[in-house]
Amino acid sequence: xxxxxxxxxxxxxxxxxxxxxxxxxxxxxxxxxxxxxxxxxxxxxxxxxxxxxxxxxxxxxxxxxxxxxxxxxxxxxxxxxxxxxxxxxxxxxxxxxxxxxxxxxxxxxxxxxxxxxxxxxxxxxxxxxxxxxxxxxxxxxxxxxxxxxxxxxxxxxxxxxxxxxxxxxxxxxxxxxxxxxxxxxxxxxxxxxxxxxxxxxxxxxxx
Length: 207
Prior knowledge:
Blueprint lengths: L1 H14 L6 H6 L1 H8 L2 H16 L8 H29 L12 H6 L15 H18 L7 H17 L8 H29 L4
């Protein structure tokens, strides 16, 4: 799993190293599409795997302590880096071709809706989305939705992907992105559960 994380980081770096330029996207269209088809879902899957690895029972997690720890590890760097990025973007706004809104309202809004128009926080969407996913998983466990059980995992996967397809665009709390990517987190949980069977299948010559 650590190796998968390394490959994921390398693919993210490659995917953002010039691929945003239209000319490069046209010439390397298939490589660009291949990388963007799975590199971020991979990170959510790894997070779900590690979440399952480090918690034998989701139902016994102390929600307050758990979310406090995640706030320190995810929200603290999210806010600090967000303020730094805002300051840098503001200082060099005259040299940028991108349109930014540096109003006070947008400054506060972008922390809870990083993809909002004029935001300078778009680069940090993954960190915020992962925090919200953890919060949703903990809320589900309080509702007695045990994601250690395959049936519940499948119900959650289908439900959130359906919401992702049906709901209109909701920027607050990155909700559309949460609905899209939480299923990959749950797939990571399933991967941990069935890893011995998957490994046995691979060792027997399975694809």
